[in-house]
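User: structure tokens for Sulfate ABC transporter permease, please.
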Amino acid sequence: MKRIVTSVLGCALASPAFAVIELTDSLSLSGFGSTSWARSDNETLLMINRGFKDENCYDCDTTFGLQLDYYLSALRASVQVVKRPQDDWNDPALEWAYIGYEYNNFDFSVGRLRLPLFLASEYYYVGQAYMTARPPTEVYNSILGITAFNGAKVSWNHELTDEASLQLTPFFGIRDENEVEFDSTTDIKFTTNRMFGINMVISGDNYRWNAAFLDSNFDQKLTIDGIGPLPTTENQHIQMWSLGTEYEFGSAVVAAEAQTNDFSSSFYTSFGYHLGLFTPYAVYGAQFNDHEHLSGNSYTLGVDYDVLPNVSLNGEVQYFEARRGTGAFIDSPTDDNAMLYTIMLNFVF
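Assistant: Done. Predicted tokens:
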């Protein structure tokens, strides 16, 4: 997260004013990417969808996205394709593809959409918009990295005061499939039968609050190496609540976010301080199991350097601990703590 005024960078990618490639007066192309060197000192894989371990990794974080936007009066259409960290270059993900329409204070969208759950959801994968190298794993991997859904949403925008605005967004999802590499031996296929929820954002010149609720019914199928696919577990149910806030106090930026669902709870809190082009920061995160026991936590120290308005570098050190569970580890670790070192390059165009 950069300054709150510019932290909507990821959302701004949906505006032709930000894109450097204007194909026509109403059609624009924009993009973003991240790449890094990262290394853990633990042989057990760390962080789902990335899999750091005790060897140099130059592609664990690699992300590249392209976005095409079309505007015609109140009508718009947008498509975003992303090579996520867990994807091969020849198999990127369709993160969104929707048609939208604005009418008075309402904004209607239908198609494939971003799940509006967390502070950084709308610009997830746009590393240039973050203060840290990655969004804190405790919260942002709490639903295993699933970030999009098929369905519709309606946003109602209302000015509370001259300095504060409110946005309410109910959403509804239909059938969808997501595959997750849960650990080194287990893949999970989630088939969403239906989902619904609501997101609320209250924002001002120097702050933003985000709250969300999600209710989903899904089928789950495990595939285990050496065993093969197991019978599908049908009609699973999950509810999630999330709450987050970010504030600017002069050069200081503070943020905190938490979520709780039927299987786990987690939170993080962060602090950063702008010193010209440099922003040193510190983050603490924690995860709890369904019995509310601490299963893992992490401590992060880093610095963000704005090389150019559209290019940034992060240098970061993180310390992870596994407690009653695996914490941020993908498998059960033999050594229950790890240091993770990262140098990250982010850009947008």
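User: Anything notable?

Assistant: Residues 9-12 form the longest helix (4 residues).
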